Amino acid sequence: MRNPIRLKNFRLRFLPYYAVGLLVVAWTRPTPLGFAIGAGLACAGLALRSWGAGHLVKNDHFTVTGPYAHVRHPLYLGTLLIGTGFGVIAGGWLALPLIAALGAWFFLDYFPRKERIESARLEALYGAEYARYRAEVPALLASLRPWPGRTPEEPTAAASWQAHRFADNNELGTLLAVVAGLGLFALRAAVFV
Fold it and tell me: Would you say residue 134 lies in a domain?
């Protein structure tokens, strides 16, 4: 199994994000209701990311199973839900600025850049098939109806969720980070009960 701690996440450029995160935990007083709602959002995001990571086969296969049949970017949508959940948990006067800052960064910088790069790469690999998928499957607002455009050529097992894919996509690190964040906020909430 791969090491869940990705060394690239410890680069100097990430230090301000970690510092802000620790300050938010230190300055906030989560309420039980805010914690419950925020933890629910964060867990929903984590579940979506985990579901997607268990289906994703990067560069070797055009993945359109699991959540990819409903939304093109389940990992990014999951990340957005996790961040929003932590903003709700923070509560108080910090919640709205945190969620607004997350939204601005996500929708104005991160997602457009990732969408442009990944779409170009996937279209180069899969051509018209990916172009059709991109035109028919929403980027972030999941469709209730799965995309019927393609049946995988691989056996049924290839289209199902696989634990080794979850590990290969390094999702255990995300799981650990979210659990640690929820644990820190739970401790803060317990202090103020």
Answer: yes
* Strands annotated E in 6-120: none
Write the CB contacts of 34 (distance below 8 Å, at least 6 apart in sequence): 88, 89, 90, 91, 95
Domain membership flag for residue 82: yes
Q: What is the mean pLDDT of residues 174-191?
A: 87
Position 164 in a domain: yes
Within a domain: residue 127? yes
Per mean pLDDT, which of 7-11, 42-46, 140-144 is the most reliable?
42-46
pLDDT digits (tens, 9 = 90+) for 43-77: 999 999 999 999 998 877 889 999 999 999 999 99
The pairs formed by 123-130 with CB atoms below 8 angstroms and a separation of 24 or more are 125/59, 125/62, 126/62, 129/62, 130/62
- Number of domains making up the chain: 1
